Amino acid sequence: MIKKVYAKIVSIEKIAKETMKMVLENEHISQFAKPGQFVHIKVADHTLRRPISIAETNVETNTFTILFKTVGSGTRRLASYEAGEYLDLLGPNGTGFPLDRVEENDVILLIGGGIGVPPVYFLAKELTRLNVNVHAILGFQSKDYVFYEEEFKQWNDVTIVTDDGSYGKKGFVTDYVHDINGIDRYFACGPLPMLKAVKEELEGVEGYLSFEERMGCGIGACYACVIPTNTKDKYKKICQDGPVLHANEVKL
Amino acid sequence: MIDLSVSLPGLELKNPVMPASGCFGFGREYSQFYDLSVLGAVIMKAATGTERLGNPTPRVAETASGMLNAIGLQNPGVDRIIAEEIPFLRQFHIPIIANVAGSTVEEYEEVAKKLSKVEDLAAIELNISCPNVKEGGIQFGIDPDMAAEVTKRVKAVTSVPVYVKLSPNVTDIVQMAKAIEAAGADGLTMINTLTGMKIDLKTKKPLIANKTGGLSGPAIKPVAIRMIYEVRKHTSLPIIGMGGIQTAEDVLEFLLAGANAVAVGTANFQNPYVCPEIIQHLPIVLERYGFHSVKEATGGAHR
Fold first, then answer.
1. Quick check: bond before B191 cis, omega within 30?
2. What is the CATH number of the domain that holds A167?
3. Would you say the ipTM is above 0.90?
């Protein structure tokens, strides 16, 4: 259930180039958020809230983590908040990664691109509760942008890929998906061209994609963030039906 | 005791605050935050003759003190709105206003006719001012003769009061209002969004896929106030005012300019509770500025 809450900033730090990590305290979000869901954050002096994926929750400390890239004036302002301040946010919003069809011993591929990595991390952690084989392929622009390699390594096998080869393997995430044998299902989050390429490369494998789009209300009322689908409704709302959608239902 | 009630054609409002069309869907999403029965009324998202899928994305962009949108009238079509959405809204026992859009006069007639037969539908808001669709909408809203024609034709086929939504994208708003009044409209809602554009410095292209979008939010409030003030001077039609309202003080400003009631749009995105919060604060603000009722404040700037 989405609630409007005030969450206290516990810490904020830069973890990679243009990439911030913020830990917030709020019981509602930390208790109810599922991997793939997001919070819709009000940023001072800005009309529209900013949708940011949840990267981790901790039910013992009532905290949750968000990672965001400082790409525009809204996220730059968000990066200037300090520990102890409160953020007005809605959450948890959207429909996350479905885990109901995951079976024991499944080979699961997680794919994250850039700032699409955080929700995939939340999922990786969640999957440790199930007895499955998880492999993660994470793509970044270059070495300076890489984050969360060590964090992922706690839970599963990780391949880091950079566009220019300045860290890990060179190329795109799709160049390495076939290194993993017998994939039963995959979950991916990242920029649209990456999601498109992943869908094509893994044609025939059950997959779920998490999308990013400019949003208005963030709760399904304004129809700003729709995506065409093959379903009866012909479209889905990314903020409400998504951001995670079945790869076969979306028209990319 | 401050009297918030307002009586307008087809609309017995317990308070003058309602969500604006297109910013509130059909109420479902906001009903998870509060009981919609506190609202003065509700204006539904636009209905067209058949389903519309709207424009490509991105459909929204932020601007200084506002936003641009070009949704493109996405809606499931009038039949499904009648079958699925109105029954949901009925449970709140507040006046329901349907926003009617179309590409042709015939489509406006057809949609309005179907809606006016729905039990409990309080009024129609005739959307002749959507700037975001290629066909229909805006051309009816910028030509006084066409605006009068569509108003007259819709009035002839409906039994509920018709409020015509004015576009600010005109040279002479008073001329539009007068033409619509002469054509038999029961009221006006104003203003719709102002056509604008934002260019992305990285791609060097318009950010919104439709290229242009409608500007809303606090940035347009002074334009709305000025236009309502001018129209109030020249027509006696009731006015539901809108354009950048965020607070109860803003509501009072609209009332003083000449609005009888108000609608809140973009502010719902910032704060889902904005309508109930404004309703709660309105008596305090009216009292602070020496008013005993909403009716007393309406047109105050003209006295």
1. yes
2. 3.40.50.80
3. yes
